[in-house]
Amino acid sequence: MAARQVSRESVLVMLRAIASTTCRCPAHSHFNGSCTHLSPGERVVPQRTSVTKSKSAEDKEYAIEMAGCSLRYGEGVTNEVGMDFANLGVKKLCVMTDTNLAKLPAVKKAIESLNRSKISFEVYDKVRVEPTDKSFGDAIDFAKRGVFDSYLAIGGGSVIDTCKVANLYASKPDAEFLDYVNAPIGKNLPIMHPLKPFVAVPTTSGTGSETTGIAVFDFEDLKFKTGIVGRPMRPMLGLIDPHHTLTMPERVVVNSGFDVLCHALESFTAIPYNERSPRPANPKDRPTYQGSNPISDIWARQALRILGTYFRRAVYDADDIEARSAMHLASSFAGMGFGNAGVHLCHGLSYAISGNVKTYVCKDYENHHPVVPHGLSVVLTAPAVFKYTYPLCPDRHLEAAQLLGTDTSGVRREDAGLVLSDTVKQFMYDLKVDNGLKAIGLRSDDISKLVRGTIPQERVTKLSPRPVVEEDLARLFEESMSVF
Description:
Elements: H1 8-19, E1 70-73, H2 81-88, E2 93-96, H3 105-116, E3 121-124, H4 133-146, E4 150-155, H5 157-170, E5 198-202, E6 214-219, E7 224-229, E8 237-240, H6 250-269, H7 294-316, H8 321-341, H9 345-355, H10 374-379, H11 382-389, H12 394-403, H13 416-430, H14 447-454, H15 458-461, H16 470-479
Parallel strand pairs: 1-8, 2-3, 2-4, 4-5, 5-8
Antiparallel strand pairs: 6-7
Helix pairs in contact: 2-3, 4-5, 6-7, 6-8, 7-8, 9-14, 11-13, 12-13, 14-16
């Protein structure tokens, strides 16, 4: 790969340093002081404001910054993509997809549109489902060789994320790969150079990647996921065409739908933006993931309402265009929410789960390698997570359960975690999700590795409303070995 990589040994040194620090809680920093860790079953229901404050209010964040891309929604909008690039005056377009999608109507319709508008393009169809640092490298090399002046991604989150990264590094050919990778694995440098115009056509209803400046990948040698985050990577336009959802197989609808569900739940229950600290000295340093906030809440609530109404219908009736259209919108809505608020423990735990896959292959996925689909890796710990996080925001947990269709009238606040956990479990049961981590090949003996893989995910775990230490992570993994 042309973008040079730091050696595996140097990365491992960083991880050992992280694991040996005095405070081993990857979430403490955002609470400005000490915190109480409740033991399993403890029923105390503190309010967010009860956390001990050791710093002045002046250190806390006081603002949110909402960023988003343009979205165009409608059946058949893919037919307009050629005109979009013609309007930009592009000379050479890079089209990215995967080998399976290259045979399906979404790519064919897009290419027909490009040909009608006489757009010169090259197709890269080697995107890996659940990309890795190595697969990113191959796409980056292709983009650099092609010297493209614009990009089009047609696919799910794996395709869109790969295209984001190819655009990022091809636009700055001298960058090293780890320059923009999240700390502590990479240098987490801010993206200061201009990127090329980029349009995304999502074909799944899950990642919301068409709305975010986030790209996630498996770091193969370290056996966990990490990512690259920066607003400049966000597509300039997302074309939300419900026609493309009609070719989604059942398990893809299920797993991508659970990604939407966890995006909405995690962003809605994340630490509030004005409890995050320290406040950046310069607004350009304000993080992409800012904590729950009034604007992201609007998107999360609406996504949860749609899930409660349409998720099951979209799975079991491939011809239900109303349900699949609604889920396609819910994916973008949740993306607008979590793309600014962030996610927390379900996603933080999932990155180690994905990185430690052994032999699991999911039905309906045309893979030539073991892989746990992202949405599945996220939802398997969700019941345990929301039982754990509820004490700091029980009302939000209850509201989320109600939005998903659960009758919460008469439910006590101290039962909020159990109610939301059971709500998620019911969806999982109804949609025939694998029964926990054991069902995908993980065992209790793997928990220490899973914990080690979660510790570096501070970018998301620190947004949990309730902090975690290693013992908490171990209990969450153990409780998730079986769900039902």
